[in-house]
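Hi F.,

I've been meaning to write this up properly since the lab meeting, where we talked about keeping a consistent format for the predictions we share between groups. The idea is simple: the sequence comes first, exactly as it goes in, then the structure tokens exactly as they come out, then a line or two of notes. No screenshots and no reformatting. I'm using this chain as the first example so we have something concrete to point to.
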Amino acid sequence: MLICVLGFGHIWSAKPGRVGGPAAYFNTTGILASGKYRHRSCVYGHIRIDECTGFHPIRADRWLFRVFGSEPMTIWNGSRKLFLKEHLAKSASPERYLARISSAELGWIDRQAPWMCDSSEVISFSEGNGQQEVLVLLPAFGRISSGSGLFHLVPDGERPWRAAFKCPLNDAGGWAMSKRQDPNQRDGKVLEIVATAKWITHRQLSDIAKITRLEKNDNRKVFEWRVRRLSEWGLLKKQRPPFLNQAILYSITKNGIFCLETIGIHPLSLAYDHGDPKSEGCITHALELNRVWISLLRSGMLSRWLPDSAIRVLLRAGSQEYAKVYDAVATLREGYELCKIGIEYERSLKAIERYQEIVCKLNDERGVHAVLYLCPNRDALRTITDVFFQSKKPVIAALMEDFVANPLGGRAEVNLLSTTLQAELRKICHQQAAITVQRAKSESFENGKRLPVASRRS
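Output, unedited:
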């Protein structure tokens, strides 16, 4: 069998020859842990190259893209072995390629799924510490499936001893990275979620990724690898504040915003963590809003979530869609209708003069169908229901914990009467349908008036 070497694993060992004879060198995969590469083998195996061929591990990079004569891979006592016996001329056309795959390059591999083609053979597979490294024998155009997409090993047409992993054929007949398999698409989605939330815990980010099915087959290990990589690249800021009991907190960096723009994602909420100490007081408020966001996502009715930073951008640009800056605006689906709900998390009560000003603004509100006030305790709930009793715009008040536990069926109040969010959404939809019908009738009546007499008789 003719095998072309495209890469080696990170761990080398040597066995001295007898009576001063040439040594034998063994190569396998490894994971970086505590500054040293360690085996962490899921599947153990090794490659053997003898010193008599002129090979030495110090100069291993010089032996890449060379063709060796070898016997087929064997398994002895559970260990997989491949013996590269002799070095051949470059003109030899290889039958198999020995490739090294790492999670940092091609993405996380789900070992429980069929991740390679049938004609491929795994020599060694190491996994641990959020890393993977694999040595695998592949034929030309052999397939590898990972968290970043589907890749084929494509040989160079003029130099068959060279090959590289590329995505499948596109419509134009060439090898390219399609949108469906572009790893930047999922990276950008993670960055966009963090930019929208401003601050988000690792648990909340994981919940949103799972609900929106960010990763293929909801693979948690791939998600952990992706977030860790974005943090290491400086696109996400990772911290463990004491008030969260050392839980991981993410925020997007300026470089993360630039990355979003380069891959074609331009969210309105281009807010990143400047490292301002004053912003720490807003973290808990943002985390509570994330809980509301997640609960609405779980309900299956959320169509769009617009954060306060995006509303500020619209108002500064001259938009008159919203009368005030809400903490968020949620667009919810009820049947075939869409309802916009302005969401306010009232962590602390304001002065009565401020609430009177808000009532006046809500009377002229045209951008949302109703306003939802979420309160941390019953005292705040009672105050909100009293203040907005005479508001023309429906104001729904509910306890924060009740709403997060059951966003649609949890107890709420409107004009001092008990209700639920779903009941209010249905009322709004019926009103919108009645308005639409009335508008259609009036338009048809006006059009009938404008027709000439002969046309009406006909």
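Notes:
Residues 2-169 form one domain.
Confidence is low (pLDDT under 50) at residues 169-173, 175-183, 453-458.

If this format works for you, I'll send the rest the same way.

G.
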